[in-house]
Structure formats: structure tokens, C-alpha cells
């Protein structure tokens, strides 16, 4: 167990920003934190980092009460708009940051090269930030957050503003480091979070909810189907062929299909149905999309 939070509350004047927020974070695969602007995500991150104190509730790191000193040793955070100092090379400023964390000058230099190698920037260690591409600067900022070998790293909008190629590089980097570091990712890109995370915390108006990206209840199974073209009376046709299924259109040409877990090889039968009715499909996914889990009530 890395962090255990129990009934955290935070007020700013009359505004109740966090309302009895409780969660557990174990070492393992990345975890997502999503929610609308103003939901309280930054406040929650600030409490985890020790920048703010909760008005009530408890926060433990491991088996101990999470003191600020222990959090700073085991936890790192990368804000969305983090910048590197343009006056120093990557190697020089990372060595300096290592010394700020208590490392000797020699150990800090070794640590600077270690984190640069983790993000595959060792060949540009002597470069200044302004001479790097946007994607390389983002990777360098992540490297900075890895100094000191933290157990938990909070990344706020790690791929914001990146083109698809560089965003893919950041996702692959996070995935490659996840065996040794637990990441909490805050992002508005739900498809990105589905690729990386199995557990998703959704914060809205200070209330925290937990979702599973697989999206299946114990006794029901879900599929998400995207057709290549609009189909007339698709829901009626499908329910005639599979009377026990429930079909919901979630957006144009996209449907969520819910069936009982006892239905065997439904995906094979569904693909045969699409072929017989000449309905070309774009994608069939086992499970509900994260977007539909969070916002399905908008399409009811």
C-alpha cells in the first residue's frame, strides 16, 4: 500500500472543494484521475504532495502517517506547465536538483545520467532546454520528476500539447517505467487513459468515484461496437437476433451492447450477424469505453 486516504475534506472559504474523499493506492499499474475543470483535482494533488493540508480526514503513506518529509522522499509531481531552466544544460540542472535532494555531488551526477537514460535523452544531456523539441522537453520534465527514485509520480496532463507521435512516446515511456514506479495520471484524454490505466478515479464537485476501464459487472458483459456507416433500425434488428441483450446508442454509429455473462461466444455471433446483414464495422471492443462509463447518463 503506497497511500491510504480516508474522508479527506477541504474548504476554501464557503466552498467545499473535497467532500469525504477516500481511496487506496497500491504499487502497480498507472492510475487515472479525471474530472471537469474546478472539480478539485489540483487541490487533491496538492494535499498528496504536502503543499496543502486537509481540513479533516487522514492520509497515510505505507503503514505510517504521511508526514511531509516522507512524502517528499517517496513522491514526485510534474505540473502541466512545468518548465526547465533555460540557463543550464539538462545534465547540470538535474545534477543540481539531485544535490537539493541530499545527494553528494558525485551521486547527483550519476543520478542525472540515470534519469536521462530512462527517458532516452542521454545523448542530449549537454543541450539546453530551448534547443530541444517540444516532445523531448516533455520527456526531460518527466526525467526531472524521476530524480531520487520516487515510488509514486503524479503527472498532470503529461501529453497536453504534443502531436500524436510524441504523445505516443510519452505513453510508451510511462508504460515502460510502470514496473518500478506507480503513476497517477491526470488527463482530459480518456482514450489515452484507457490504454494505460485499469483503475480510474473520477472527481466531480469534490466527490470521488472509482471506475474500472474493463467496465463489466460481475453478472453482465458489455461490448462497444462502432459501425462504419449508419444502420437503419439497427437496435431493433439486433434485439430480434439476440432477445436478451440490451442495446444503447451512445453516439453516432456507436453502440453499447449488454448481455448476460452466461451467453457463450457472443462476439463471434455478433460478427456473423453483422456479416449477414452487410453491416461493416469499424471496431468491436470487449467492455464499455471509459467515456461511456462516466457520461452514459447523457445518452439515456
TrEMBL record:
Gene3D superfamilies assigned: P-loop containing nucleotide triphosphate hydrolases (3.40.50.300)
Short name of any one Pfam family annotated for the protein: ABC_tran
Keywords: ATP-binding, Nucleotide-binding, Transport
Stretches assigned to coiled coil: none
SMART domains per record: AAA
ABC transporter domain ranges (all copies): 3-230
InterPro entries: AAA+_ATPase (IPR003593), ABC_transporter-like_ATP-bd (IPR003439), ABC_transporter-like_CS (IPR017871), P-loop_NTPase (IPR027417)
PROSITE patterns: ABC_TRANSPORTER_1, ABC_TRANSPORTER_2
GO molecular function annotations of the record: ATP binding
Similarity comment text for this entry: Belongs to the ABC transporter superfamily.
PANTHER family (UniProt xref): ABC TRANSPORTER, ATP-BINDING PROTEIN
Name of the molecule in the record: ABC transporter ATP-binding protein
Amino acid at each position: 500500500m503506497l497511500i491510504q486516504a480516508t474522508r479527506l475534506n477541504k474548504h476554501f472559504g464557503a466552498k467545499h472543494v473535497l467532500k469525504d474523499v477516500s481511496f487506496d493506492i497500491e504499487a502497480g499499474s498507472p492510475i487515472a484521475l479525471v474530472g471537469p475543470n474546478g472539480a478539485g483535482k489540483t487541490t487533491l494533488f496538492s494535499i498528496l504532495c504536502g503543499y496543502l493540508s486537509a481540513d479533516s480526514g487522514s492520509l497515510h503513506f505505507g503503514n505510517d502517517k504521511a508526514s511531509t518529509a516522507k512524502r517528499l522522499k517517496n513522491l514526485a509531481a510534474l505540473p502541466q506547465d512545468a518548465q526547465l531552466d533555460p540557463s543550464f544544460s539538462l545534465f547540470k540542472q538535474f545534477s543540481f536538483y539531485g544535490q537539493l535532494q541530499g545527494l553528494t555531488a558525485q551521486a547527483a551526477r550519476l543520478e542525472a545520467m540515470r534519469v536521462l537514460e530512462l527517458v532516452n535523452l542521454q545523448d542530449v544531456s549537454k543541450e539546453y532546454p530551448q534547443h530541444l523539441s517540444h516532445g523531448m522537453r516533455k520527456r526531460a520534465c518527466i526525467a526531472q520528476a524521476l530524480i531520487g527514485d520516487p515510488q509514486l509520480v503524479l503527472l498532470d496532463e503529461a501529453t497536453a500539447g504534443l502531436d500524436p507521435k510524441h504523445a505516443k512516446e510519452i505513453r510508451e515511456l510511462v508504460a515502460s517505467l510502470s514496473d518500478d514506479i506507480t503513476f497517477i495520471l491526470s488527463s482530459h484524454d480518456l482514450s489515452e487513459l484507457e490504454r494505460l490505466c485499469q483503475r480510474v478515479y473520477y472527481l466531480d464537485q469534490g466527490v470521488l468515484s472509482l471506475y474500472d476501464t474493463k467496465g463489466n459487472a460481475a453478472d453482465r458483459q458489455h461490448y462497444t461496437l462502432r459501425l462504419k456507416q449508419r444502420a437503419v433500425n439497427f437496435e431493433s434488428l439486433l434485439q430480434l437476433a439476440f432477445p436478451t441483450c440490451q442495446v444503447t446508442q451512445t453516439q453516432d454509429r456507436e453502440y453499447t451492447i449488454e448481455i448476460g455473462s452466461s451467453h457463450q461466444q457472443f462476439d463471434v455471433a455478433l460478427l456473423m450477424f453483422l456479416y449477414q446483414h452487410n453491416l461493416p464495422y469499424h471496431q468491436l471492443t470487449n467492455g464499455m469505453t471509459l467515456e461511456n462509463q462516466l457520461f452514459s447518463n447523457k445518452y439515456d
